[in-house]
Specification:
Layout (H helix, E strand, L loop, with lengths): L5 H18 L6 H8 L3 H7 L3 H23 L7 H18 L1 H11 L6 H10 L1 H12 L8 H22 L6 H15 L2
Helix pairs in contact: 1-2, 1-6, 2-3, 4-5, 4-6, 4-7, 5-9, 5-10, 8-9, 9-10
């Protein structure tokens, strides 16, 4: 359901991401979410059926913003396929680094009982351009054979793990060195 007040929706998104970061998905209570968003608990039920509806709505919005960013940032200026893949990976790494709470939320939701098959399919549809990039490489004989959807998950995992390792375990900042490692490791895994 679409909210009449976009500011409320933004507040709900922020509150959901913050609470997920603090407590995980299971720890989110509707009353606490409403308080953190600065709205009445009853208002949540005006716009959403239940907690799952809120979580899936926030997921759709966050993923939609990510897909829009990547599609806008992606360019076909690169003539060679490897360059296009590395450009995409660099942009995706930038997005992951700048949106850590959103990425945590997405990852937790994907593994939770709140995720539905329909929501998963919506995600695949939103990021179809990534699947098409992998398939293009396979068709040209540049990328190893295999399920393109699995390869997209591998790309996603490499980027998230390298950034998480740097920022969480090494307490370092995301920088050009990490960005370049993401590009090199992903290409090393994909290339034939």
């Amino acid at each position: 359901m679409r909210l009449k007040d976009e500011q409320k929706f933004e507040a709900i998104i922020r509150a959901t991401l913050e609470l997920t970061h603090e407590k995980g998905l299971a720890g989110i209570k509707m009353s606490e979410l409403a308080r953190k968003a600065g709205i009445a608990t009853g208002s949540l039920y005006t716009y959403f059926e239940d907690k799952q509806d809120i979580l899936l709505s926030v997921d759709r919005e966050v993923r939609s913003r990510g897909a829009a960013y990547l599609m806008q940032a992606s360019t076909d200026d690169e003539e060679n396929y490897e360059g296009r893949v590395k450009t995409y990976v660099g942009q995706y790494a930038d997005f992951v680094s700048a949106n850590r709470e959103a990425i945590l939320f997405i990852d937790l939701l994907q593994r939770s009982p709140f995720m539905t098959e329909r929501s998963y399919q919506d995600t695949v549809d939103q990021y179809r351009f990534t699947l098409e990039l992998v398939e293009e490489g396979q068709n040209a004989g540049l990328v190893r054979e295999g399920d393109p959807e699995e390869m997209v998950h591998v790309i996603d995992s490499i980027i998230k793990m390298l950034i998480d390792h740097r920022q969480t375990h090494l307490k370092g900042a995301y920088d050009e060195e990490v960005r370049n490692r993401c590009k090199e490791y992903v290409w090393a895994v994909l290339k034939k």
